[in-house]
Specification:
Blueprint (H helix, E strand, L loop, with lengths): L1 H12 L3 H8 L3 E10 L5 E10 L7 E8 L4 H17 L5 E8 L7 H14 L9 E5 L5 H15 L23 H16 L8 E5 L3 H12 L3 E6 L4 E3 L6 H8 L13 E3 L1 H5 L5 E4 L18 E3 L8 H10 L2 E3 L1 H4 L2 H15 L5 H26 L3 H20 L4
Parallel strand pairs: 3-4, 3-5, 6-7, 6-10, 10-11, 11-12
Antiparallel strand pairs: 1-2, 2-4, 7-8, 8-9
Helix pairs in contact: 1-14, 3-14, 4-5, 6-7, 6-12, 6-13, 12-13, 13-14
The chain binds nicotinamide-adenine-dinucleotide (NAD).
Nicotinamide-adenine-dinucleotide binds next to helix 7.
Length: 408
C-alpha cells in the first residue's frame, strides 16, 4: 500500500523512474536478535527492527512499537509514511520506524526495562540526536523513552536528551507534547470547517476513540465551541444530540474499567452506529480501518478528520470523495505529535525550554500552514486531500534528493 501510494504521487509529479526507485526503498533496515534474562532466570531471544527510509531532508524520525505481530515489512512501510508525514508539515526530518516483536503484557516492568535497554544497545550505532531520533508508538511510552535516553547516554559518556522525543518533562520532554496530536486534529478541523463555509464553533462533532488523541481532540473542540454529540472507546459509544460533558467524561471515565459507557445520561451506541450518526465533523481517532466499503456510504459528516492512522480504507476513500465529503488525511491531521516532537528535539539541542503557550502557538501555525498548502494542491490537481498531501510530501523529498545529488 505504501509503495502504491508513492507510485501514484510519482505519476502526478512525473517523477523520473530512478528517483521513484530511490524513494521506494528504505536507506537502511536493521534486524537484530537479542537475549533478555527473564525474572524466572530463563533466557529469551527477541527480534527487533529499526528502519530508516530517507535521509535527504535531515535525520530520521519515527516511533518504536512493541507488538507481538510486527515484522520488518510493516516497519518499513511505517518508516516510509513517516517520511511523508514529516515532509507534508515541512519539518527537517526523514522517516524511520522501530519495533520489537513482543507481547508486553507478558513482561514484568523489570523485564520490559531490560528488553528496552538491550534493544537500544542493538540499534545504538544507527541512533543519535543528529542521525535517527526515536519516539513512542504502540506499546511504548514516556518511561520507555527515558530508559532509551539513559542507555544511549551511558554509552556516550554524557547526557544526550535529544536522542529520543516523547520523554518525561523532567528528562527534557516538551510542554504541550501530550496534547499535541489532538490539538493538531482540532486546528485542521477548524480550517476544514472554514473551507466548507462553516465554523467549528457550533458544529456537531463525533469522536471515535477516547485515548490520547480522541479525548484531547474532543476537549479542545469543545473549547472551540463545538458540540460533541458522541464519543466512544473500545467498549462502545455514548450519544446525546444536545452534547456530552467532555471534561467530566475525561476526568471520570477515560482509562477506567468500562470507559465512557459508565456515563449514563445519554444513549448507549456501538462504534459502528457512532460512525453513521448525524453530525458535521467526524474524528476517527481510535484504530485503523473503521470507515470501509461497508459503511462509507452511510457517513453523514461533511468533514472527516483522521486522528488515527489509516482509519479509512482506499475503497471507502473513493466513496467519500464521490459523495463530496472532505477527508483531512492522517499524515496531515495527526502530524501534531511529530511536530511537537520536533520542538522537543530543538529544545533539547539548545538546552532552552519554551513555555506551553509558545509550543501550542507554533504548532497551530505549522498545522494551519500545512493544511492550506494541501488544500490548494488539492484544488490545483483536482484530487482528494490525501493524494494532495502525498504530492506535496513526495515533491519535497524528491527535490531534496535531487538537489543533494547521487553520491559519489
Ligand atoms: P490510545 O491507546 O491512547 O487510545 C486509543 C483509543 O481507542 C482508546 O480510547 C481505546 O479504547 C479506543 N479503541 C481501541 N480499540 C477500539 C475499537 N475497536 N473501536 C473503538 N475504539 C477503540 O491511542 P492514541 O495515542 O490516542 O492513538 C489513537 C490513534 O491515533 C492510533 O491510530 C495512533 O496510531 C494514532 N496516532 C497517535 C498519535 C499520538 O501522538 N498519540 C500520533 C499520531 C497518530
Amino acid at each position: 500500500m505504501a509503495r502504491q501510494q508513492l507510485a501514484m504521487a510519482s505519476q502526478y509529479l512525473n517523477l523520473d523512474e530512478g528517483l521513484h526507485q530511490v524513494l521506494a526503498h528504505p536507506v537502511r533496515q536493521v534486524i537484530t536478535a537479542f537475549p533478555v534474562v527473564l525474572d524466572s532466570g530463563e533466557v529469551r531471544v527477541f527480534e527487533g527492527y529499526r528502519v530508516q527510509h530517507n535521509l535527504s531532508r535531515g535525520p530520521t524520525k519515527g516511533g518504536i512499537r512493541y507488538h507481538p505481530e510486527v515484522d520488518v515489512e510493516e516497519v518499513t512501510a511505517l518508516a516510509m509514511w513517516m517520511t511523508w508525514k514529516c515532509a507534508v508539515v515541512n519539518i527537517p526530518y526523514g522517516g524511520a520506524k522501530g519495533a520489537v516483536k513482543v507481547n508486553t503484557k507478558r513482561l514484568s516492568k523489570r523485564e520490559l526495562e531490560k528488553l528496552t535497554r538491550r534493544y537500544a544497545t542493538s540499534i545504538n550505532n544507527i541512533m543519535g540526536e543528529r542521525s535517527d531520533i526515536p519516539a513512542p508508538d504502540i506499546g511504548t511510552n514516556a518511561e520507555v523513552m527515558g530508559w532509551i535516553m539513559d542507555t544511549y547516554s551511558m554509552q556516550a559518556g554524557y547526557t544526550v536528551p535529544g536522542v529520543v522525543t516523547g520523554k518525561p518533562l523532567e528528562l527534557g520532554g516538551s510542554e504541550g507534547r501530550v496534547e499535541a496530536t489532538g490539538r493538531g486534529v482540532v486546528v485542521t478541523a477548524a480550517e476544514g470547517c472554514k473551507s466548507l463555509g462553516t465554523s467549528l464553533n457550533g458544529a456537531k462533532v463525533v469522536v471515535q476513540g477516547f485515548g490520547n488523541v480522541g479525548s484531547v481532540a474532543a476537549r479542545l473542540a469543545e473549547q472551540e465551541g463545538a458540540i460533541i454529540v458522541a464519543v466512544s472507546d473500545a467498549v462502545g459509544g455514548i450519544y446525546n444530540p444536545k452534547g456530552l460533558p467532555i471534561n467530566e467524561l475525561y476526568h471520570r471515565y477515560s482509562g477506567v474499567e468500562g470507559g465512557v459507557r459508565n456515563y449514563t445520561e445519554c444513549e448507549q451506541i456501538t462504534n459502528e452506529q457512532l460512525l453513521e450518526l448525524d453530525c458535521d465533523v467526524l474524528m476517527p481517532s481510535a484504530i485503523q480501518e473503521q470507515i470501509t466499503v461497508a459503511n462509507a456510504d452511510k457517513i453523514k459528516a461533511k468533514l472527516v478528520v483522521e486522528g488515527a492512522n489509516g482509519p479509512t480504507t482506499p475503497e471507502a476513500d473513493k466513496i467519500l470523495y464521490d459523495k463530496g465529503v472532505l477527508v483531512i488525511p492522517d499524515i496531515l491531521a495527526n502530524a501534531g505529535g511529530v511536530v511537537t516532537s520536533y520542538f522537543e528535539w530543538v529544545q533539547d539541542l539548545q538546552n532552552y525550554f519554551w513555555e506551553e503557550a509558545q509550543v501550542n502557538d507554533r504548532l497551530s501555525n505549522i498545522m494551519r500552514r500545512s493544511y492550506h498548502a494541501v488544500y490548494e494542491t488539492m484544488n490545483q490537481h483536482k484530487v482528494d486531500m490525501r493524494t494532495a498531501a502525498m504530492i506535496i510530501a513526495v515533491q519535497r523529498v524528491a527535490e531534496a534528493t535531487t538537489m543533494r545529488g547521487i553520491f559519489p
